[in-house]
Amino acid sequence: MAATIVYREESTMIGFAADKLLNVWKTLGEEADITNPNADAITEESGRPAANGSFATVIILSSAEEAAQRYGVTIDPAVAAEGFELRIEKEGTQSVVYVLARDEAGAMYGTLELAERLQQQGSLDAVTGGVTNARFPFRAVKFNLPWSTYRRNECFDLQRDTVRDLGFWQKFLDMMAENRYNVLTLWNLHPFPYMIRSKHFPKACPFTDEELAEWKQYSDRIISDGEGTRH
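Above: the chain sequence. Below: its structure as tokens.
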């Protein structure tokens, strides 16, 4: 069954999950693409049969207002913050799958859940819908940074270059999103000298202005990726 995935592309969180869903569909040997939410285009695409005569449109929505105004659907009242509803409507060989949520995080988690169920079942026909909410609102990872550590050991030194690599953090945040973690906590003894130079205690920061600027850029990037592109 070929598919078109529809979502607002300005949402990087939903885009992350939509890419995962797209890849799963393709690994099953089916055609799939992503498009912007254009009502006319969706109507045309929904009626376009694949080679085997079946086609699915996946519509990812992150607000009750957009769901109601644009598509005439109502999100189940049971859907809470960061929760989602998978609703599958079938008519002959055509299917419409709604991922309905009240926020971007819920829409991302719902799309990831759809991708996982599709991968496990091997076919959309075997995927079931329903409402899913998080049992715990605070789902955190505790990460011990390898500098200004609570004790000295070679194991911390070995990780310095890895943890300074922003590419590592992108993969780590992706892993957190896939496993539905929504909080990253970073731990060491004294984080502030890596972020600021105190006006009254400037010698508490051991770095030159150039080194401190690099550390601040590093911290800002992790926070930006965590808040803006992943949840």
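Strands lie at 2-6, 32-35, 55-61, 84-91, 94-100, 130-132, 140-144, 183-187.
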